[in-house]
Amino acid sequence: MEIQEKRNPHKGGRHPKKDPAIHRYSISLNEVENARFLTLFETSGMHVMAHFIKVCVFQKVIKTVKIDKAAMDYYMRLTTLYAQFRAVGVNYNQLVKIFYRNFSEKQASAHLYKLEKQTIELAVLSKKIIELTQEFEINYLKK
Fold this sequence. Notes:
Blueprint: H1 2-7, H2 31-44, H3 49-57, H4 69-102, H5 105-141
Helix pairs in contact: 4-5
């Protein structure tokens, strides 16, 4: 009975760590320093404040990531719009094939004339989107 107790002194629970962190330190910050510290912590992307403090103390590289929500939203909407333009291009090609397959040359030309007007409007809209994107990059992304 005594031999089993010596081999297994713990009846349950967590296994003890090989190198436990037993040394603790405390610092005091004023309001300005605390606000700056919290800002640095939030921009670092770390989830545990103790790990962030260790990185700062031992002067390792601190990773800070700034995410601009407006730029991200604009980029997502622009990507969606680009996908829609591609879909319009695919539909355009399908319409041209259908016109020449199902209609006479004269009827197909009449329908294509109407389609060409809409295509010109899309091209103008596309140029406007490119101008707005360039303006957005100059004003908001390149600092």
